[in-house]
Amino acid sequence: MLPLHLSSLKARNTTPIPIITTTSSSILQISGMARNFVPDAYGWITSLPPFSQWRTSTMSLCICATPSPSSLTPPPSMSLSVTKAPPAQPSYLTFSISANYREPISLWTSKPVHLKTKTQQQSLDEQDTVQLFVDVVNQVLRYGPDSNSSSTKLPFRFPGVQHLHGSFGDAFNIVFLSLAFLVCTYEAPRDLRRGCLDSLRAQLTGPRCRGAAKTLVWMLGANLEDQWMRTMNLAVTNWIVELRSSNSRHMPGVLFSYAVQASGLWKVQLYCPVIAMAMEDPAVATQDERLLFSLNYQQLEGVVQLAYRTVRKENWVDVEVKVDNIRCDVESLVSETLMAERGYGSEEKHFPSRVMLQITPMQQTDILSVSVSKSSDNPTHEFGLEKGIEAAFDAPSSFGLKASVAESLTLAMKPWKFEQSAHGNTGTLNWFLHDGANGGKEVFSSKPSKLSLLQPRAWFRDRYSSAYRPFTKQGGVVFARDEYGDSVSWKVCAAALGKTMDWDVRGWIWLTYWPNKQRTSHSETRWVEFRECLQLPLAKFP
Questions:
Q1: Largest CA distance in the chain
Q2: Which H/E stretch holds residue 452?
């Protein structure tokens, strides 16, 4: 299967740009550059010298470089360039990302940033930098699956530097690296993509950018955040499809997650393209290209919200953690039209089959005990008994009557089972999906029979339209406190009062595919792991 967009890209933006010249402050020895180098685009832009000190009209900063085949040949690289307008024209700057071979190739160019006066001492002031930031954000969103749909576009409103919860410079850098990743995926030549994409991915998932991600998602808001992540994960999916088509053994693991805590609530948000999730059985594969397209161009979106409270006792403090909301959705990364053309539609996709959470206090010496609030499940079985009598006359010569009695037994059960357990000081929450038509087996760890997969009325067929579906209409699942609100609590020694405790929230999500409408015997299960550290302050009581 050819990757989306990459198979149909036309040569564009190939007009050569002027040879790039660097100042001493931005020179970087490419041959010795580490693959995890993170360029400080914001710091470089804001420290550009005044116009009067520029020796040429263009300066540049290296973004990433491919490994050099020899010491005599400079390797292909990507760079960020800034060019000032000729003296006879109005005063403005343009920024561009280029692929550097013997002749640089322009891959992206910004809108002109008009300067206030020709005598402006600094190249950019704060307002100019914000204008460039907004332009880059909008350029990223234009690569998204809904970029041509005016009904789904939301305007990006800059909140103002004075209101940012964190560093604007770090947010600028992660936005710029995101654009560089997209430009490299869709615009760069193949040999440059092969060398630079993994480097850019490492930069985006490194600790420096992970810390800036919270600032960025706060600025975007929840709806634009969703569009942003679909845009990025569509590019990641295209990249992995291209790697597989070239039989590459290197498959990048890509998971974006972050955690926030406020007002008695812990929240973990995560996104992962389905194609990047680990397979339970890597040997399982299908040669159906259309089915592969439907399964690959999907994204897991997960939210874990836990409510916590502290209660002061005479000799200890009770810390109670409850499930507020756990939501898992599998969303399409492409439009419905394209999914129907190249796949079997967006309803032929994975569904959540298991969710597990582990909550662990990091300061073990402060913990006295841990308690769970739900007993081992011993459900009441509902039996339905039906009796029927069949009677028939024998031939007229025998004057006899024969009768038989038949019974059928039905068992009612819920598809999702919830369990709690404690090991050491770790509280574990588990949600399992069961197959109601196959002896109640766990779906994530069992294989359905080939016959059941082909039956038109099997348990998981038409699973997004049946009245008895164990999922939402969109194919996700929601666990809320109404049914899964049982808590895990820890007794913390009184000496911990006044401290801020670190808590490790670790989780796993399993997604399973069984046929929905298509007649196929293919089935598979994938999983992903996430881990975040959250904090809980134990205030001193008066």
A1: 121
A2: helix 450-454
**What single-letter DSSP state applies at residue 409?**
E
Q: Computed over its alpha carbons, how large is the radius of gyration of the chain?
A: 29
Within 10 angstroms of residue 407's Cβ, the number of other Cβ atoms is: 8
What are the structure tokens assigned to 80, written together? 């960020």
Gap between the Cα atoms of 209 and 201, Å rounded: 11
Secondary structure percentages of the chain, helix, strand, coil, to 5: 25, 35, 40
Q: What is the pLDDT of residues 51-91, one digit of tens each?
A: 778 888 889 999 988 776 655 567 788 999 999 887 766 67
User: Is pLDDT above 70 for 318?
Assistant: yes
Does 437 have pLDDT greater than 70? no
Q: If you search the block for the tokens 């490790």, which residue do you land on?
A: 504
Place of tokens 């790697």: 243
Rounded Cα distance, 41 and 47, in Å? 10
Residues 333 and 274 sit within 8 Å (Cβ to Cβ): no
C-alpha 194: how far from chain center: 22
Q: Are 356 and 429 in contact (CB under 8 A)?
A: yes
Provide CB contacts within 8 A for 396, sequence distance 6+: none
**84-to-22, 92, 292, 496 alpha-carbon distances in Å:** 14, 6, 47, 59
CB 118, CB 34: distance < 8 Å: no
Tell me which of 76 and 230 has the higher pLDDT: 230
List the structure tokens of 354.
């298991």
d(CA 246, CA 225): 32
Q: pTM for this one? A: 0.84
